[in-house]
Design brief:
Blueprint lengths: L24 E7 L5 E6 L5 E3 L13 H12 L4 H8 L3 H25 L5
Antiparallel strand pairs: 1-2, 2-3
Organism: Tautonia plasticadhaerens
Protein name: IS1 family transposase
Length: 120
């Protein structure tokens, strides 16, 4: 049985939107060459989405370990060229993943600021 408790429906119009472990998700199919990634479906609103939707790895063609390694090197202060050499990807790939992770982090920050209580 697939553990879906860490996922939630991403459809903002769904009554179960954002509720983790609500029991409304099921695996409809698997994709990618080794069938490791899952397509999820909300039983409530019938929306389908990838388990990577809403993460910096959505749309990634690199193996997850390599993408995480790229981001780890960038976070540690390695340059784009050095990271590309160490991980074995092009510098354009490093720059793209860095921008993608930055946009994702900015979106999360803005969300958290919007729901945080005002400063006293």
């Amino acid at each position: 049985m697939d553990d879906l408790s860490r996922f939630c429906c991403l459809n903002p119009d769904c009554p179960e939107h954002g509720k983790r472990g609500a029991g409304n998700l099921s695996v409809t199919s698997r994709y990618c060459p080794d069938k490791a990634r899952r397509m999820l479906r909300c039983r409530c609103c019938k929306a389908r989405f990838s388990e990577r939707k809403g993460t910096p790895l959505f749309g990634s063609h690199l193996p997850a370990e390599k993408a995480v390694s790229v981001l780890h090197h960038i976070a540690e202060g390695s340059g784009v060229r050095k990271t590309g050499r160490l991980v074995g990807v092009s510098r354009e790939t490093v720059a793209r993943y860095s921008r993608k992770a930055g946009r994702h982090a900015r979106g999360l920050h803005d969300e958290l600021v919007a729901v945080s209580p005002p400063y006293p």
